[in-house]
């Protein structure tokens, strides 16, 4: 009886590890594809729009995140031991990529909200101008702040392990928890604040257009944008919730599985909604199909001879 229970648990764990590993590798390929497309377009002399730059930055942070997720999965599976320096560096990279993922995703929502929404408030127009003209600086600042916050968090954890002072440990842990919560709550708040004006603007446009004739195609575009916005927010909320509360309810492998669902689903949806990326996907698929068909024809002709 005990042996069957152990074997069942082992099979379930192996299935969970396999699914998580496959998810990480698929995510890595998708994020790499998004970055490579931007690099190729840039090498061909095609200018990258601010949205392209932001999407490429998000994909880059997710490459690091999903590569480290795969590394942690192998670490959990084979129970490897590493030096303290290696763990500190990997910990900083892991938390930094997670924070960058959260902040840049929130920035993407703010960017689209400012771009699509039609509000003529002075503050709104000023903010729209600042984001559109200085987006690269905002991205760099977000990345640097994420790295700085992550370094502080990891080093405080390292100090807690080295020192035994209970009072100072409590103070450091309290500060670390507050820093962690604030660093997750602020981008979530930005995302929510940008979400409602965007949805309100889109719904207002749809209401106006329904009173006109022959607007079916335009309404489909607005409906698709609303679906993208809501789906992106659900993925973002899942990621932030898992980042804050996931360790209390999930073990390490389950946490990695849920963690990697957001970047994978969100990136697939970004590719679907971005014409430039979508066209490259179709071009790649057509090229791959022609290559496979050509190999089949060559193998058949070789067999006949």
Distance between the termini: 60 Å
Radius of gyration: 23 Å
Strand proportion, as a percent range, falls in under 5%
Q: What best-fitting shape do the alpha-carbon axes yield?
A: globular
Q: Characterize the main sheet.
A: none
Question: N-to-C SSE series?
Answer: HHHHHHHHH
Walkthrough of the structure:
It contains nine helices and no strands. The protein is mostly helical and 305 residues long. It is globular, with a radius of gyration of 23 Å. The protein starts with a helix and ends with a helix.
Question: Short description, anyone?
Answer:
By secondary structure, this protein is mainly alpha-helical. The protein has helices at 2-43, 50-78, 84-116, 122-133, 135-162, 166-210, 216-249, 252-273, 275-304.
């Amino acid at each position: 009886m005990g042996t069957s229970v152990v074997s069942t648990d082992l099979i379930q764990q192996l299935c969970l590890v396999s699914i998580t590993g496959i998810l990480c590798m698929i995510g890595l390929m998708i994020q790499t594809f998004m970055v490579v497309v931007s690099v190729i377009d840039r090498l061909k002399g095609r200018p990258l729009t601010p949205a392209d730059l932001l999407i490429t930055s998000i994909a880059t942070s997710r490459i690091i995140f999903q590569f480290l997720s795969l590394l942690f999965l192998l670490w959990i599976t084979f129970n490897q031991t590493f030096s303290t320096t290696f763990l500190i560096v990997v910990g900083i990279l892991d938390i930094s990529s997670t924070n960058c993922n959260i902040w840049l995703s929130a920035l993407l929502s703010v960017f689209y909200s400012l771009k699509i929404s039609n509000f003529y408030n002075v503050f709104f127009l000023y903010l729209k101008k600042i984001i559109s003209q200085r987006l690269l600086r905002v991205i760099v600042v977000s990345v640097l702040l994420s790295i700085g916050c992550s370094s502080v968090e990891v080093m405080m954890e390292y100090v807690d392990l080295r020192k035994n002072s209970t009072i100072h440990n409590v103070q450091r842990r309290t500060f670390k928890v507050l820093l962690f919560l604030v660093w997750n709550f602020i981008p979530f708040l930005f995302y929510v604040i940008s979400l409602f004006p965007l949805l309100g603007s889109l719904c207002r446009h749809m209401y106006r257009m329904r009173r006109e004739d022959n607007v079916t195609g335009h309404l489909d575009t607005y409906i698709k944008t609303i679906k993208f916005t809501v789906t992106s927010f659900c993925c973002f909320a899942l990621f932030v919730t898992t980042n804050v509360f996931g360790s209390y309810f999930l073990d390490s492998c389950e946490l990695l599985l849920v963690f990697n669902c957001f970047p994978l689903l969100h990136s697939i949806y970004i590719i679907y909604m971005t014409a430039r990326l979508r066209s490259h996907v179709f071009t790649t698929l057509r090229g791959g199909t022609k290559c496979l068909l050509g190999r089949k024809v060559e193998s058949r002709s070789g067999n006949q001879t």
